[in-house]
Amino acid sequence: MIDLAELDTPAGRERLREITHHVGFFYLDGHGVDRELLDRVFTVAREFFALPDDAKQSIAMLNSPHFRGYNRVGGELTNGETDWREQIDIGPERQPIPGAADYLRLQGPNQWPADLPDLEKTIEALDAALADVGMRLLRNWAASLDADPAIFDDAFAHAPATLIKVVRYPERPSADHTGEQGVGAHKDSGVLTMLLLEPGSSGLQVETEDGNWIDAPARAGSFVVNIGELLEVATGGYLRATRHRVLTPAGAPERLSVPYFLNPALDATVPTIELPPHLAERARGIELDPANPLYRTYGENAWKSRTRAHPDVYARWYPGESEPE
Question: How far is the C-alpha of 26 from the C-alpha of 20, rounded, in Å?
Answer without folding.
Answer: 8
